[in-house]
Amino acid sequence: MIEVKELRRSFGPVVAVDGISFNVEEGEVLGLLGPNGAGKTTAMRILACFLTPDSGTATICGHDILKNPIDVRRSLGYLAENVPAYNEMTVGGFLNFICDVREIRGRNRKETLDRIVPMCSIDSVYHQTIETLSKGYKRRVGLAQALMHDPDVLILDEPTDGLDPNQKHEVRKLIQKMAKSKCIVISTHILEEVEAVCSRTIIIAKGRILVDSTPNDLKEKYKCSLDSVFRKITRTESASVA
To answer: Does 209 fall in a domain?
Structure first.
């Protein structure tokens, strides 16, 4: 469902994404790991057609991000690092606006809202303005907008950022449930989350893929926790660059 081919992107002298390639299939949850500035968010923004690569390309559900960006956006749900929303809107007003954008109308709209609002546990804030919400609730509203059109592909940048432990547990359960029929890519700094929901892990540093494996295989290979594996791999990369 996702095929990435030699993606590159620079910002002035800084190479954010340096020729990465990988595939993700239906039923997979891919965890993108890496230190701050590794290129994870840039890669996700390229896949979601918010940034154009300097070279290389990718396809989402067979649609090329350069040739068919509208079809790509229709095929995926994207939760950005900083959820773009209109602070003066109520949660309900914002989600109805997303329905307008996604051309979800009539009975289908009511069914969609009836499904998504409780799924993301935002019933209690549905009539509040977004500016009054906590960071955790804003994150859940962002997740709701990504799920409105029931996309085949989800790209989630730090999906549990700002959530309390109970909320994180619920979102992880939701990701696990959706993974059976979707292709999901998540970026996170929480290694516990990777072990909980990811079937596969890619570790990125300085825009390059260092490892593409499963959490269990990495722990078995290095004979240590995933946290220790991450530190060993990324520190080795830093040392080799220095």
So the answer is: yes
